[in-house]
Amino acid sequence: MIREICKDETFLAQKAEIATPEDLPIATDLLETLEHHKQGCVGMAANMIGVNKRIIAFDNDGSYMVMFNPEIIKKSEPYETEEGCLSLTGVRPVKRWKSIKVHYQNEKFQERFKTFTGWTAQIIQHEIDHCEGILI
C-alpha cells in the first residue's frame, strides 16, 4: 500500500524501535511507497511512512533492497555534501562516508554484513540517520 509521507519532525526525531518478522508488511508498504516516489526519491526509512521501526528500503544500483535493523559498523573516507529529503523541505549540508560496512537482517531475518560505496553508501547513511532520529 502506498502510504502518505510523514513530515512531522517531532515523530521523525524519535529513535526507531527494533523491527521483527511481524513487521514484514511494513517493508512491503515501504517498497511500494518508494516505487511510487521513484522520480524524486532513492531511499526511505519506515518512519517516513509513519512507522517507528528500523527498516529501510533503497535503490541498490537499479534494484530495490530492504534492510531490517541496519547498523553501520565500519566507515571510511569522510566527505561533505548536501542532501534533500521527502519528509523535509530544502537541501541541507551533511557529513558522509565514501565506504561503509553494514550489519543488518534480510527479509528472512538472517544476519548479513555488506560493504557499500559511493552513491549507494550515501543513500544508506541517510536512511540509517532516519532510524536514529537524526534529521539532516
Query: Mean pLDDT score, rounded?
Result: 96
| General shape | globular
**What is the tally of beta strands?**
5
> What is the number of helical segments per DSSP (H or I, 4+ residues)?
3
CATH class: Alpha Beta
Class from helix and strand fractions: alpha+beta
Helix content: 10-25%
Task: Say what the CATH topology is.
Answer: Peptide Deformylase
> Superfamily at the CATH H level?
Peptide deformylase
In angstroms, what is the radius of gyration? 14 Å
Strand line-up across the major sheet? 1-2-3-4-5
Question: How is the main sheet built?
Answer: 5 strands, antiparallel
Low-pLDDT stretches are none
Q: Kindly estimate the percentage of residues that lie in beta strands according to DSSP.
A: 35-45%
Count the domains: 1
CATH architecture: Alpha-Beta Complex
What is the first-to-last residue Cα distance? 27 Å
Order of helices and strands: HHEEEEEH
Describe the structure concisely for a colleague:
By secondary structure, the chain is an alpha+beta fold.
What layout of secondary structure does this protein have?
Elements: H1 9-12, H2 24-36, E1 43-45, E2 55-60, E3 63-85, E4 88-105, E5 111-117, H3 118-131
How does this model look, in words?
The protein is α+β, with helices and mostly antiparallel strands and 136 residues long. The chain has one domain (9-131): Peptide Deformylase. It is built from 3 helices and 5 strands, in the order ααβββββα. The protein has helices at 9-12, 24-36, 118-131; strands at residues 43-45, 55-60, 63-85, 88-105, 111-117. Strands 1-2-3-4-5 form a 5-stranded antiparallel beta sheet. A hairpin with a 2-residue loop joins β2 (55-60) and β3 (63-85). The longest helix is centred in the last third of the chain and has 14 residues, at 118-131. The radius of gyration is 14 Å and the shape is globular. The protein starts with 8 loop residues before the first helix and ends in a 5-residue tail after the last helix.
